[in-house]
């Protein structure tokens, strides 16, 4: 039996290539091609775009991205067992798929891609947050990508879109909402995956803003929010003491009560604080 793109169904691909899921690589595969096509469509118009995919595994989402018209997909996969299956997709799609075997954290995708670039991935849970923070915190903006369409554990997705005052509000919300328009695009139950993970998942869509909402240095803002939320129950004058000896004055200067807790601080105030902390 073959599928709409003439390639075998994913269960067959997995059986043929012996792709038993490895927990250490965060392997929870999506085997329903209708579902991977739906996720690919969340990335928006792909015609004329290069797409970076991290962790293609047996290639379900990869096939969705190619079928949706991506000019080129660069798929970065750590597990060498997946390469033969991915090479079959590359052959079927006439050279529009380039596969790199290696660690996504160690690869420079810009050597292989031409703008406009979108990123789409069912991310391995062990490197997902680190990759997202990297994509959100380059020193200059706009970044090399236009949109990110990323599958996370639902709890992580909720942290990305969280508003001040909620338990999920923290570093990811501030960094993401500072420079991007964010929304949860889809929710997926555990049984959408093989093997099913313990938790639900969600696809988050982030569209890079032309400029950050408020002025701040990415590295300083990242450090301020990391320190502030590291001890989220403490008052800021205590949690941020290590950043500057006169932090109480700097907080007051930007209109944040030193007794406030990180959870209550709006994005604009965090950016003002980052500017105050960076000042001599
Ligand atoms: N995209 C496939 C799907 O939706 O069925 C697989 C998703 S699975 C959640 C994550 C994939 O990322 C696995 O194929 C795993 O081998 C790969 N992976 C894990 N760590 C990686 C890393 N550091 N760099 C690149 N790929 C990685």
Could you name the key traits of this structure?
280 residues, 2 domains, alpha/beta, elongated, Rossmann fold, binds S-adenosylmethionine, seven-stranded mixed sheet, two-stranded antiparallel ribbon, 9 strands, Helicase, Ruva Protein, domain 3
Largest sheet: 7 strands, mixed
User: Which quaternary structure do these chains form?
Assistant: single chain
**Broad shape:** elongated
Share of β-strand residues: 15-25%
Unreliably modeled segments: none
Report the CATH topology name of the largest domain.
Rossmann fold
Small molecules held by this entry: S-adenosylmethionine
* Number of separate helices: 11
CATH architecture group name of the largest domain: 3-Layer(aba) Sandwich
| CA distance, first residue to last residue | 68 Å
Number of DSSP-assigned strands: 9
Structural class: alpha/beta
CA gyration radius, whole angstroms: 21 Å
Mind explaining what this structure looks like?
The protein contains eleven helices and nine strands. Strand 2 (50-54), helix 3 and strand 3 form a beta-alpha-beta unit. It is an alpha/beta fold and 280 residues long. A seven-stranded mixed beta sheet has the order 4-3-2-5-6-9-7, with helices on both faces. Strands 1-8 form a two-stranded antiparallel ribbon. The longest helix has 13 residues, at 218-230. The chain is elongated. The mean pLDDT is 96.
């Amino acid at each position: 039996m073959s599928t709409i793109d003439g390639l075998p169904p994913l269960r067959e691909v997995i059986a043929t290539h012996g792709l038993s899921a490895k927990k250490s690589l965060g392997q929870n595969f999506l085997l329903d091609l209708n579902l991977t096509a739906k996720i690919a469509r969340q990335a928006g118009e792909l015609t004329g775009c290069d797409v970076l995919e991290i962790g293609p595994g047996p290639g379900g989402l990869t096939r969705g991205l190619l079928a949706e018209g991506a000019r080129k997909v660069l798929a970065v996969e750590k597990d060498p067992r997946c390469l033969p299956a991915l090479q079959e997709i590359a052959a079927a799609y006439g050279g529009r798929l380039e596969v790199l075997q290696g660690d996504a954290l160690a690869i420079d995708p810009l050597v292989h891609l031409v703008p406009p670039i979108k990123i789409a991935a069912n991310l391995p849970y062990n490197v997902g947050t680190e990759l997202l923070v990297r994509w959100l915190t380059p020193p200059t903006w706009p970044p090399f990508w236009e949109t990110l369409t990323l599958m996370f554990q639902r709890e992580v997705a909720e942290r990305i879109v969280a508003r001040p005052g909620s338990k999920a509000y923290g570093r990811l919300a501030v960094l993401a909402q500072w420079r991007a328009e964010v929304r949860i695009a889809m929710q997926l139950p555990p049984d959408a995956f093989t093997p099913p993970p313990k938790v639900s998942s969600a696809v988050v869509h982030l569209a890079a803003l032309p400029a950050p909402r408020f002025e701040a240095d990415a590295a300083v803002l990242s450090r301020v929010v990391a320190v502030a939320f590291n001890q989220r129950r403490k008052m800021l004058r205590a949690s941020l003491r290590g950043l500057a000896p006169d932090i109480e004055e700097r907080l007051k200067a930007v209109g944040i009560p030193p007794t406030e807790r990180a959870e209550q601080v709006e994005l604009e105030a965090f950016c003002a604080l980052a500017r105050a902390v960076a000042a001599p």
